[in-house]
């Protein structure tokens, strides 16, 4: 049985709470990413997504110099590296999340994404179910917002 450690991405772009939302937007653009773990040293504090920047940042009329702490999501699901890929996929599907930080004693080791599950053809059914569930939720949210 494969573990999360075997498939997680370890080349992670991170930021700190000392950064501002403009700097995060630039990092996202430079690296073509929409998800940045926020760390203090190696300790995971939370994450900021491109959606967080828009919804909690710019749509709330915060300037680019606004602290990351204004848009950070701190109540995040994480997983340990020795957990099976199957369990990671189930957790992602149940919580409708695309990326799962991998931590050990609170320290960020890597990230597992839906793509990591699907690209490596490991537990394709679970990855497909997770992505389908997430996509359905996104579609429902968009439909509800149009009303």
UniProtKB/TrEMBL annotation:
SMART domains: CBS. Keywords: CBS domain. It holds the Pfam family CBS. CDD domains: CBS_pair_HRP1_like. InterPro entries: CBS_dom, CBS_dom_sf, Diverse_CBS-Domain. The keyword Oxidoreductase does not apply. Residues 8-64, 72-129 form the CBS domain. This is CBS domain-containing protein. It comes from Paenibacillus phyllosphaerae.
């Amino acid at each position: 049985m494969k573990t999360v450690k075997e498939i997680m991405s370890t080349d992670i772009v991170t930021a700190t709470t000392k950064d501002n939302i403009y700097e995060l937007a630039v990092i996202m653009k430079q690296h073509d990413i929409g998800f940045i773990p926020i760390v203090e040293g190696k300790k995971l504090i939370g994450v900021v997504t491109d959606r967080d920047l828009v919804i909690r940042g710019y749509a709330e009329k915060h300037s680019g110099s606004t602290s990351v702490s204004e848009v950070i999501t701190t109540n995040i699901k994480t997983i340990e590296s020795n957990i099976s890929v199957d369990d990671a996929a189930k957790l992602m599907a149940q919580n409708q999340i695309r990326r799962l930080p991998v931590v050990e004693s609170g320290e960020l080791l890597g990230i597992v994404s839906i793509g990591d599950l699907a690209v490596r053809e490991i537990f394709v059914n679970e990855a497909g179910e997770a992505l389908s569930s997430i996509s359905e939720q996104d579609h429902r949210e968009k439909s509800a917002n149009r009303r």
